[in-house]
Amino acid sequence: MTAVGSNAGDPDSLGGRTLRWTFTDGPTAGKTYEHEFRTDGTLTFREIGAEKTGDASEPEPVRYGERRIADRIHVASYRSSSGFTLTVVLSFTDQTVVGFASNETSWFQQTGTFEVVA
Q: pTM score, two decimals?
């Protein structure tokens, strides 16, 4: 995968878009997460509707990779500060998402939907 920074200006890039997705199954079923894909190859994400606890500062950006793999279908992947890697396939045709989350001890497959916020 190519870091999005190398795709800057590419209309097929996720860079510069904000997406919200909600998984309908798996350990995060029913939760909605907002992902801001930046053009510098980093993203921030946060759970929508979650009560803020502790430090209410902005989340730290993490590096991500992404690529358009077919017309209106993208794959993106990043490793969060919690140690989980999330890889998602996003279909802009029907706004569905399939995700695979893993760390050194766990692996989960999840499905859901997403919307483009910006």
A: 0.85
